[in-house]
Design a protein that fits this description.
The protein is α/β, with parallel strands linked by helices. The chain has a single domain, classed as Rossmann fold (3-Layer(aba) Sandwich), CATH 3.40.50. Helix content is 57%, strand content 14%. It has nine helices and five strands. Strands 2-3-1-4-5 form a five-stranded parallel beta sheet, sandwiched between helices. Helix 1 crosses helix 9, helix 4 runs parallel beside helix 5 and helix 6 runs antiparallel to helix 7. The longest helix has 15 residues. It is globular, with a radius of gyration of 16 Å. Bound molecules: adenosine-5'-diphosphate. The site of adenosine-5'-diphosphate has 16 residues, from helix 2 and helix 3.
């Protein structure tokens, strides 16, 4: 079994890299953002609860997020491994994930940080805005999510670094080059 966490700010290219990894290693992709979006677009009880929080670009509470994640993992117990994307975003979530993996007789083997600076991701948005000549609502929300990442989510990194489970890959460059770097880390 191979269980990976992919980490990085909005706009770092996590989605693109995740696609490649799930194919190569036959992993079940679990993105808490996608799960929450499924709930909000289907107006489930959970979706109604988190809609406003998500719209504001804020983090959903640990209780709700962890419960949803657990359910999804348990539903896929037969998977060859998991790629967690967008989770954990807090140290409490990281600890809960370790517990869950332990209960399943496995662990998180690698945490890959796709490193792109706050400046760079904001530059990417600004560039797009210039091209499209507008600053829309979606951009403002995106900026809020970027702020949440650099003020809150990054605090999870030292948790994994202390346990020597963190590998950092430069997220600026050609997509295939970045993939190669990630694969190098995973095959080590
Ligand atoms: P991004 O594109 O910013 O990386 P995601 O698609 O991963 O965002 O998540 C979208 C939204 O879903 C977040 O802004 C947050 O409101 C909520 N969310 C997703 N994952 C988590 C999590 N692990 N903890 C708390 N909230 C989360």
């Amino acid at each position: 079994m191979l269980n990976i966490v992919i980490f990085g700010p909005p706009g770092a290219g996590k989605g693109t890299q995740s696609e490649k990894l799930i194919d190569k290693y036959n992993l079940k992709h679990i993105s808490t953002g996608d799960l929450f979006r499924w709930h909000t677009s289907n107006d489930t009880e959970l979706g109604l609860k988190v809609k406003e929080i998500m719209n504001n670009g804020e983090l959903v509470s640990d209780d709700i997020t962890i419960a949803m994640l657990k359910e999804e993992v348990e539903k896929n117990e037969g998977a060859g491994g998991f790629l967690f994307d967008g989770f954990p975003r807090t140290v409490a979530q990281a600890k809960a994930l370790d517990e869950l993996m332990k209960e399943m007789g496995t662990k998180i083997h690698h945490v890959v940080e796709l490193k792109v600076s706050e400046e760079e991701v904001k530059k990417r948005i600004a560039k797009r805005r210039e091209l499209e000549n507008r600053m829309d609502d979606a951009d403002e929300k995106l900026i809020k999510r970027i702020d949440e990442y650099f003020s809150k989510t990054v605090h999870v990194l030292p948790y994994y670094a202390k346990q020597n489970r963190l590998s950092t890959v430069n997220g600026i460059g050609a997509i295939d080059e970045i993939s190669k770097e990630i694969i190098k880390v995973l095959d080590k």
